[in-house]
Amino acid sequence: MIEKLKDIERKFNEIEEKLSDAEIISNMEEYKKYTKEYKNLSPVVEKYREYKGLQTDISDADDILASETDAELRAIGAERRIENLYKVIFMADRVGEE
Fold first, then answer.
1. Is residue 61 exposed (0-12), middle (13-18) or buried (19+ Cβ within 10 Å)?
2. How far apart are CA 53 and CA 56, in angstroms?
3. What distance in Å separates the CA atoms of residue 83 and residue 70, rounded to the nearest whole number?
4. How far apart are CA 85 and CA 28, in angstroms?
5. Which residues in 2-15 are b (16+ Cβ under 10 Å) and which e?
6. Long-range contact list for 36-43, CB < 8 A, 24+ apart?
7. Each residue of 26-80: pLDDT tens digit?
8. 19 φ/ψ angles, rounded to the nearest 5 degrees
9. 3-state SS string for the chain
10. CA torsion sign, 91 to 46 to 61 to 2?
11. Which contacts of 82-87 are long-range, i.e. CB under 8 A and separated by 24 or more positions?
12. How far apart are CA 35 and CA 15, in angstroms?
């Protein structure tokens, strides 16, 4: 599923580039086609990017837990990790419902 999301994001980025191309802008049919596709992919890409951000935050929290000796900082890292894991689980549950 992640590979499919990466492909969708890649396609979204390509469309974004095309929408700024003067040739595409001057061809109303092409422009409308890409605008529609861009609009359809936007919500999926937005959620995927949110997911990637959460994964980065979880990884950062793991680094804090692995390297930090200060108890207070470790507690903050553990709290951030758990909070972001819950968000990822919530996102996965919502995807399963749709």
1. buried
2. 5
3. 20
4. 44
5. eeebeeebeebeeb
6. 38/12, 41/8, 41/11, 41/12, 41/15, 42/12
7. 999 999 999 999 999 999 999 999 999 999 999 999 999 999 999 999 999 999 9
8. -70, -15
9. CHHHHHHHHHHHHHHHHHCCCHHHHHCHHHHHHHHHHHHHHHHHHHHHHHHHHHHHHHHHHHHHHHHCCCHHHHHHHHHHHHHHHHHHHHHHHHHHHC
10. positive
11. 84/54, 84/57, 84/58, 85/58, 87/54
12. 8
What's the token pair of residue 47? 């959620």
Q: Which residue has the tokens 């061809």?
A: 27
Pull the structure tokens for residue 95.
């995807």
Per the document, the length of the chain is 98
The model's pTM? 0.80
Question: Tokens representing 80?
Answer: 């951030």
